[in-house]
Amino acid sequence: MNGARDPDGRHGVPGPAGPADAGAQEPAPEAVPAVDSRLIVREEGFRGYVGEFRRKLRSGELGSLPVVVAVIVIWTVFGSLDSAFLSAQNLSDLSQQIVGTGMIAVGIVFVLLLGEIDLSVGSVSGLCAALFAVLNVINGMNQWLALLVAIAGGAAVGLVQGFFFAKVGVPAFVVTLAGNLAWNGLMLQVLGTSGTVNIPSESVVAELYSTIFESPAAAYLTAAVGVGLFLLASLLDARRRRAARVPYRPLAEIVLRTLVLAAIAFAAAYILNRYQGLPLALLIFLVVLVVLDFVLRRTRYGRQIFAVGGNIEGARRAGISVPFVRMSVFTIAGTMAAVGGVFLAGQIQSASQTSGGGNLLMNVIAAAVIGGTSLFGGRGSVWSALLGALVIGSIQSGMNIMGVSNAVQFMITGAVLLAAVVVDSLSRRSQKAAGRA
To answer: What keywords are assigned to this protein (predicted)?
Structure first.
């Protein structure tokens, strides 16, 4: 018996029927609304979360898990080899030492989200440190004005490089590689024949790095404010999503996540207070991360960055100004390179011909990638800079305590970077196989 094709193209539907048959047709059942899998998971309780965790592992959605495991392993190994590594003094020093590298790595995160790279951030950081030192120390300019000029210089450099990339069409790799050479040469020109300019310990740059709030209340209050803001933001986000009738985190999950964050924050405050207190540099770094994380995840501009990095053609068709996003991202990278360079200059209290050189570029790129930002664009977080810098800084601190040579440190850091890229590549392949990339 031959069947006719219905309007949806399906076979097996009887041919035209008479009027009597038409009245005998049963009404179509009501469509069952789709239910988001995340809601089902949360209704199942602990078992649902375990299943969801396994699904994410199979599909390559690893998030920050690899870097958290890496930090635990690194601290366990070095702590077992030398108890001085886990001392309050060493961990407090580590929290200050990662700030300069971490600030520059934040800018690299923005660039990597576009699927691009910036090879000039090391030279830009050295140039801006030299600008501040020469303007303030040599020429007597007001230190705050000199600081603003130095940071504005980094932003201008990033804007110029972004223009050549976004408007002229020169690949970012080539633009920033040329910039790496050009800005390093300009730094040498700014420093002049002396080659080194010492920064006084009472300078604003040195004080931004070295100032420590010795009162125990400062560290605990910072931890409490951070946890409180996280809880408030989570509750507001859940209410907003619930009002929009989209999946949201239940109260129990929000409370659990807040308790975990509180345990980490107050443990860090306790360790810092056991030595000297809360470093101002670390506090500034955390504030920068919170602000830029809000920009990336809660603003239209942040969504545009992810859109351009994930699918540039789709972003164009959606009406996003791709050149503007690209130029602005490289401007942010230049600005953060300047801020990081200023902190690094405050750390050693000088600007010299070696500023921004050595393994700085390798470390900031490694920090961003190791922290979980994808080299392929469209996936990452500014908190990657903190986690990655913590991994790099912990490795260097541990090996310095053990007296390992710089050559071995370079090889180990390179191996860790390669491992992070391999994990990123395998994760992306798994997501493609699962239809999520």
So the answer is: Cell inner membrane, Cell membrane, Membrane, Sugar transport, Transmembrane, Transmembrane helix, Transport
For 393-403, the pLDDT digits (tens) are 999 899 999 88
Q: Which residue has the tokens 């958290």?
A: 68
Q: Quick one: average pLDDT of 32-61? A: 55
410 has a pLDDT exceeding 70: yes
15 secondary structure, DSSP code = -
**Amino acid at the residue 261:** L
Whether the CA torsion 277, 280, 284, 289 is positive or negative: it is negative
The answer to whether residues 117 and 111 touch, using CB atoms and an 8 Å cutoff, is yes
370 Cβ contact list (under 8 Å, min separation 6): 67, 70, 384, 387, 388, 391, 392, 416, 417, 420
Closest CA to 156 of 188, 190, 131, 185: 131
Average pLDDT over residues 75-98: 93
What stretches of 352-405 show up as alpha helix (H) in DSSP? 360-370, 383-402
Segment (H or E) for 207: helix 204-210
Q: Which two tokens stand for residue 167?
A: 């408007």
- DSSP one-letter string for 46-75: HHHHHHHHHHHHHHT--TTHHHHHHHHHHH
Angle made by CA atoms 262, 258, 209, in degrees to the nearest 5: 45
Name the residue with tokens 């635990």. 72
* Most distant pair of Cα atoms in the chain: their distance: 103
Angle between helices 121-133 and 143-163 (to 10 degrees): 150
- In this structure, how many other beta carbons lie within 10 angstroms of the beta carbon of residue 319? 7
Instruction: Give 96-107 as a DSSP string.
Output: HHHHHHHHHHHH
pLDDT surpassing 50 at residue 231: yes
Paired tokens of 124: 């830009």
- Position 35 pLDDT exceeds 80: no
List CB contacts of 282: < 8 A, sequence separation 6 or more.
95, 96, 99
Query: What is d(CA 411, CA 23) in angstroms, rounded to the nearest whole number?
Result: 80
- pLDDT value for 123: 96
Mean pLDDT across the chain: 85
Task: Inform me whether the pLDDT recorded for 19 exceeds 50.
Answer: no
Q: Are 254 and 231 within 8 A, CB to CB?
A: yes
